[in-house]
Amino acid sequence: MSNFSIAGRMVGPDHPPFIIAEMSGNHNQSLERALEIVEAAAQAGAHALKIQTYTADTMTLDLEEGEFFINDPNSLWKGTSLYKLYQEAYTPWEWHKAIFDRCRELGMIGFSTPFDETAVDFLESLDVPCYKIASFENTDLPLIRKVAATGKPMIISTGMATVADLDKTVRAVREAGCEHLVLLKCTSTYPATPENTNILTIPHMSELFNIQVGLSDHTMGVGVAVASVALGATVVEKHFTLRRADGGVDSAFSLEPEEMQALVVETERAWQSLGRVTYGATKKEQDSLKYRRSLYITEDIKEGDVLTKGNLRAIRPGLGLSPEHYELALGKRVSRDVKRGTPLSWDLI
Fold first, then answer.
1. DSSP conformation class of 288
2. How many CB atoms lie within 10 A of CB 302?
3. Would you tell me which of 67, 69, 153, 323 could form a disulfide with 314, CB atoms 3.0–4.6 Å apart?
4. Helix (H), strand (E) at residue 112
């Protein structure tokens, strides 16, 4: 499972987690707001900003009946048609260049999720450095092959996918010529709950496919994302907005700037803490060893006096014999006069 570069930034287990701020439809159909979101993501320390490339017509049919209408009472988007939802949420294609240019100016990587072949061709004309495939498209093998054929790194969310689905997807990616792939554990509910996130899948998926695995996270807060890094996640993607109170199709489960900053900081701390399997004092702990407990003479005693619980104790600091020798030392006589506060050593017995 090798590290690789996206637009000059290394992604992999040997590097801090790659944090993606997903704008999605949180621009609320304002290019000015979209650019403000880019700036806020950069200021918060996100490494990349992702948008989505589609139109309502490339996503679905303009129908307001049956399966084309959202009736689910638990859905954030209940009472609208798929077509109208995508009309509201889509990012106008004429905005893409301005968004990507602003990302580059601010030192962030800008890229997108294409939803059909025309979107891939358009994004290629803008020379995006990598591609994301959404969970709902992770079984669209023609689309996946089209993206993989660009040879650019791919990030694929795995929401709802079975092991068999993922096997087909990974094979399609590799056979089409993409060498660098990251799968993202994802729960395709909005928002998702921690107990339905199952991030123990991350190391299993990584071992199963010998591939980098990250997290596309729809839970509230940053706790799940931080925990995922401890399980080996190399990439974390979270939806991002200026303020949830501003509304928008994805605002309810999006991070605000202060939360995104916390995500960047805490996931890097989690990654730094992994280290390696080690026991005993580290180099940094060597100076602390002297503050361990050890055996000390606690009363002035004369040569030949017996060591007792009254004049021998295990206390700090750690310059005397280890407390493991306490029972052995009790009842022994001292070889010379000893002052209170003297560390016990074998030559005193």
1. G
2. 9
3. 323
4. strand 109-114
Angstrom distance (rounded) from CA 38 to CA 261: 14
Distance (Å) of CA 219 to CA 225, 239, 270, 273: 9, 10, 18, 23
Which of 234, 256, 274 lies at the terminal end of a domain, its last residue?
A: 274
Helix-strand-coil split of the chain, %, nearest 5: 40, 20, 40
Q: How far apart are CA 276 and CA 262, in angstroms?
A: 25
Q: What angle do CA 280, 282, 288 make, to 5 degrees?
A: 90
Domain span at 288: 283-348
Would you say 225 and 232 are in contact if contact means Cβ atoms under 8 Å apart?
A: no
Using DSSP's 3-state secondary structure scheme, residue 324 falls into helix
Express each pLDDT in 34-50 by its tens digit: 999 999 999 999 999 99
pLDDT digits 0-9 by tens, 1-31? 789 999 999 999 999 999 999 999 999 999 9
Q: What is the four-CA torsion angle of 206, 212, 218, 224, rounded to 10 degrees? A: 70
| Same-domain check for residues 344 and 254 | no
**CA 52 to mean position of chain CA atoms:** 21
Residue 338's SS3 state is: strand
Measured CA to CA, the distance from residue 164 to residue 195 in angstroms comes to 24
Helix (H, G, I), strand (E, B) or coil at 74: coil
Q: What angle do CA 278, 282, 283 make, to 5 degrees?
A: 145
Question: pTM of this prediction?
Answer: 0.89
**What is the Cα–Cα distance from 144 to 116, expressed in whole angstroms?**
9
DSSP, residue by residue, 139-161: T-HHHHHHHHTT---EEEE-TT-
- pLDDT band for position 85 (50/70/90)? confident
Residues with Cβ < 8 Å from 282, sequence gap 6 or more?
Answer: none
What distance in Å separates the CA atoms of residue 338 and residue 61, rounded to the nearest whole number? 93
23: domain CATH number?
3.20.20.70
C-alpha closest to that of 118 among 71, 57, 180, 42: 57
